[in-house]
Amino acid sequence: MSISIKSEREIGLMREAGKILAQVHDELEQFVRPGISTKDIDKKGEEIIRSFGCIPSFLNYNGYPASICVSINDEVVHGIPAKKRILQEGDIVSLDAGVIYNGYHSDAARTHAVGEISSEAKQLLDVTKNSFFEGIKYAKEGNHLYDISKAIQNYAESFGYGVVRKLVGHGIGKNLHEEPQVPNFKMPGRGTKLLAGMTLAIEPMINIGTHDVKFLSDKWTAVTADGSLSAHYENTIVITKGEPEILSLTR
Ligand code: MF3
Ligand code: CO
């Protein structure tokens, strides 16, 4: 297999998918508050996705049982929504969602504060989001993939944080997960050369403590090994000869 270069037509469809997904996240951000369950978020998210005529791509993907991955505090990613999991004031909650629009995918994640949060948690959210933007400074034709990875890691680690290694970003298009894998940490070599028309889901997962994660018995939920807080921020982008275009962002 190799990395697919998308045509203008395909990028147009992914642009639509991304625009819709950005709106899904904007609406879900308004919905997040203390007292709602992670299942409420999943239901609301699925409803919004379908209201745009899209398909929630995570639902039944490799058996994943929901449309939105909802991960609280030390949960890193892939939390499974449940009626009994209630958001509490002071929590941080990451929402990861994917949509399919006319056969093309977009994938994005945000981490939100639930009510008032600690300054430590606030800094984690800011650094995680900023690390994505540090990374995509290098997302340009002619650079190498791991230039992005290295920039994300260097930035996050300068705050003493751990960058998750067991889970990585990915190419995206007709499939949710395509080549190449997009690590958020330094790898030997330079990685593939970036070319205009490559579409990537770049998704730093950052822990206040060490980088290590473990998986719960539900086989999905990744949690930090040391119990520290974790945040996730992801967008689908397209590589160009100049600045990358962030497809899954409206503002
Ligand atoms: N954004 C997630 C990822 O790239 C997608 C979750 S897949 C699911 O890993 F199966 F959990 F839905
Ligand atoms: Co992803």
UniProtKB/TrEMBL annotation:
What the protein does comes down to:
Removes the N-terminal methionine from nascent proteins. The N-terminal methionine is often cleaved when the second residue in the primary sequence is small and uncharged (Met-Ala-, Cys, Gly, Pro, Ser, Thr, or Val). Requires deformylation of the N(alpha)-formylated initiator methionine before it can be hydrolyzed.
Q: Which family does it belong to?
A: Belongs to the peptidase M24A family. Methionine aminopeptidase type 1 subfamily.
GO molecular function annotations of the record: initiator methionyl aminopeptidase activity; metal ion binding; metalloaminopeptidase activity
Binding positions for a divalent metal cation 2? Answer: D107, H170, E203, E234
Catalysed conversion reaction: Release of N-terminal amino acids, preferentially methionine, from peptides and arylamides
> Which species is listed as the source?
[Clostridium] polysaccharolyticum
Residues reported to bind a divalent metal cation 1: D96, D107, E234
Cofactor note as given: Binds 2 divalent metal cations per subunit. Has a high-affinity and a low affinity metal-binding site. The true nature of the physiological cofactor is under debate. The enzyme is active with cobalt, zinc, manganese or divalent iron ions. Most likely, methionine aminopeptidases function as mononuclear Fe(2+)-metalloproteases under physiological conditions, and the catalytically relevant metal-binding site has been assigned to the histidine-containing high-affinity site.
Question: What is the name attached to this protein's record?
Answer: Methionine aminopeptidase
Please name the Gene3D superfamilies in this protein's record.
Creatinase/methionine aminopeptidase superfamily
